[in-house]
């Protein structure tokens, strides 16, 4: 009658209403689907270290990753960096992961976590740092390299 079948609803059966999200009054629950085009993730600091030591990325690209990455630093009973003074210049040991720090300092070692940019800002003048001392891709930055990193960061921020 008038262009539609009156028996269609009776043949389809009962369809229950969609469930509501807990605490979400009147909102429908949606299933989480992975995005069709996922955003690329930033490389990890360990990946950047490997790429830099093998010549696959430039110093500037490495520093951009380093500045925003977490760095794990061993610590003593007093606040601040632990320094190694049995080298040509004093250096601060730092690590790309807790696993790397534990390999160097032991399972029960104390540590703190900061970003690479914060570390560069807080590093005492005249000190360098070593990334992943016991790692496969150990990197040593002397005091001069640290000064260059600071200059690069300032140019990037202030032009």
Write a structural description.
With 159 residues, the chain is of the alpha+beta class. The chain has one domain: Uncharacterised protein PF11572, DUF3234 (Trna Endonuclease, Chain: A, domain 1), CATH 3.40.1350. The radius of gyration is 27 Å and the shape is globular. The chain has helices at residues 8-12, 45-53, 59-68, 98-105, 116-122, 143-158, and strands at residues 70-74, 91-94, 111-115, 128-131, 139-141. The chain has a three-stranded mixed beta sheet. Strands 1-3 form a two-stranded antiparallel ribbon. The longest helix has 16 residues, at 143-158. It is built from six helices and five strands; from the N terminus they run αααββαβαββα.
Descriptive key words:
35% helix; alpha+beta; single chain; 3-stranded mixed β-sheet; 5 strands; two-stranded antiparallel ribbon; 159 residues
Q: Supply the CATH class.
A: Alpha Beta
Query: Which series of helices and strands comes N to C?
Result: HHHEEHEHEEH
Secondary-structure-based class equals alpha+beta
Binned, the helix content reads: 25-40%
Oligomer: single chain
Number of distinct beta strands: 5
Distance between the termini: 75 Å
Give the strand order of the largest sheet, numbering strands 1, 2, ... along the chain: 2-4-5
Spans of 5+ residues with little confidence (pLDDT < 50)?
none
Continuous helix count: 6
Outline the biggest β-sheet.
Answer: 3 strands, mixed
CATH superfamily: Uncharacterised protein PF11572, DUF3234
Fill in the CATH topology.
Answer: Trna Endonuclease, Chain: A, domain 1
Radius of gyration: 27 Å
Whole-number mean pLDDT? 80
Shape field: globular
Report the portion of residues in β strands: 5-15%
Question: Which CATH-level-2 architecture?
Answer: 3-Layer(aba) Sandwich
